[in-house]
Structure prediction request, 371 residues.
Amino acid sequence: MAPRKRSSIVAAFRGNCTAFIPRQLTARDLDWLKLPPALVGFPAQLTYRDVRPGLTGGRRIFVAEYQPQGESFVQSGACRKLTYRWVGGGGYHVDVLHDAGSGRWSLYKFRAGQLASQVSGEGFGEAMIRATAVGLDRHEPAFTFVGGMEECEAENRAQREQAWAAELRAQQRQQSENIAASRVQKLAFGTLPKAVGTPNLVFIPLEIAASLAAVHRAMKAASWGEFKALMPAERLLPLMSTMREVYGWQSFDEYYEECRADGTRSERESLWLAWCASRERAPLDDDDFHSEQIPGYCDGDWPDWPEQEMLRWLPREICTEFGHTEDSVFNGPFLQLDAARAPDILAALERAGYVCVWEEELVRRACGYAV
Prediction:
């Protein structure tokens, strides 16, 4: 047997609004609706009633019924929470919280993620009366059944379309905020010790810091296979292309096409052995790896030098106000930041829209320091 459709009883009147005490969900309801048994005691539905102008003209009574969303239920200790949404859709929802320890019920109504109202009560009836007596929010969608059938249908259609349009705008706004958040640059920072002079405060874009740390780890590889496995893919491919140009490496396929005569299997095997012995071939995975084989590594020209790249990564005004450039012997200027002014530098970067994360070990590894 299905539960009664009428799940609320009128409890009180307050101006144009009507307060309701909803019927509470029973174990039988939940079994029929295939909802979790832990929802026993929550309202079967929430009803908000108010008198206000319609979208198609005239003042009339509007009613919004919110239904429980079983998949939204969460429980933490003695606290339970269930979300309710308007039957017609849209950007409004109500979170109902129950604290079994105190017996307190709280209802939070949200409009496109923003809190529209908040009401609590010591018991179920008190909380529900207070919450529903607030009535409808100004732009809250609701249905009317006052007037002719065609008139009500036109008004309710307008209410539903307005709700859908508001929900679409909210989704688009959320997408824009997510895109904007993804563009916020996160900086890892930490101090680098110096054999001579004061330590340097170094800031590196977080993703670049992780990539550089992986590069310096790869430079300690014993074989070319290990080196390739440890190198970030986005850095390995350009590096191998550069090395191919610098060393004039020739792939086996290129060597084979250049040298083959009859194309027999024995000839291919012979050419493979000759290619492996050649000094102009790309290294095989089993070949020993030595860091000096990487162009520019021993000279400090590869990979990126974060202390120098800060001049490009950080806003110019921050570099000027909080730091000064120094010249290295072989690799040009780099930025020196005073670690003692870290709080001021962090505040300035955050005002400029950066998110700064203290990652001392990561920064040192990204700069090639052994940790």
The radius of gyration is 34 Å. Confidence is low (pLDDT under 50) at residues 1-7.
